[in-house]
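Notes from hallway chat w/ T.B., transcribed later so I don't forget. T.B. wanted the structure written out for a chain they're using in a teaching module, and asked if we could keep both sequence and structure tokens in one place. Agreed to drop them here.
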Amino acid sequence: MENDNHSFAPEATSSSEPAENTSTTNLAQAASTDAFVPRTDFSRLSASAEAVRRELGKVIVGQQQLVELLLTAILADGHVLLEGVPGVAKTLIAKLLARTLDVPFSRIQFTPDLMPSDVLGTSVFRPNKAEFEFRPGPIFSSIILIDEINRAPAKTQSALFEVMEERHITQDGTTYQMQEPFVVLATQNPVEQEGTYRLPEAQLDRFLFKINVGYPTAQEEVAILQGHHSGFGGIPLDAVQPVLSAAQIAELRQQVRRQHVEPKLLEYIAQLVGQTRAHKALYLGASPRASLALLNGAKALAALRGRDFVTPEDIQFLAPSVLRHRILLTPEREMEGGTPDEVVQLIIQQVEVPR
């Protein structure tokens, strides 16, 4: 651009021409500067996120970080695994989040006798047509809540592998595409292990985040009791209204994908994930899919926080949720009482933060 501007510079022919050409040059330089420093208007995204928070706040008390992570996953087009003891509103918040989105919703209760056809669908013979007709299962929806995902056997778990990663299923040689958005919200209980099946690493790797849902604070629990008492025991699910359509979600996702990320931050993500493969406390490190999850999540989180660029703090904030289900501790570290989150924090402290 600078060479082009100089080529249009006058050779002092008259008193009026330099002023005109100078203004033209300034405009060209301004346009060049704007081209190199793109700005994105996140006002619509911020307003939509605030509307979702407001609707959820009609029923949910606290859990701001959980809501932020769920919104991040929606914008990053990723699945979420919610883990927590019974009664901390895992299922409730997933149902309420689905209600704020004007898209199809289905819920699947996983049980030990659940079959793959109960999830994906099955082919039914039509005598009048003398042919088989595919009847879609509950997985054919936009927001799918899978309650107690670890209660189904391996055969049923494997039915989710293709659809969670490739967004389609193959039945009787025919491929059926999922509609967008397509997000799986799964819950599991970390305490009760009787009658459960451990999720395979390949399936865990398909979740963008694993979020640990903890107990509310004392003040939040008092607020829950007050709301429950004043409402005479009911949960006003009907009070939550949809605020985002499928087209709006697609538009916001496009904004997120265009987020600016410095090359040194890409190296930072690669170093963090690479350290999980070499850490002495870990038996299994994270795959490149974890790096992609960290990148996409950080872009969505930055947009939620009103920025058109990613910072190291975004990456550090999301690292535990992205990595905790993708790494395995060594038996020695487990016997010492270590946790994946502790190892992730050690790695964050060890890797130099780019400036």
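Follow-up for T.B.: The two ends are 29 Å apart (CA to CA). Might be a good example for the class.
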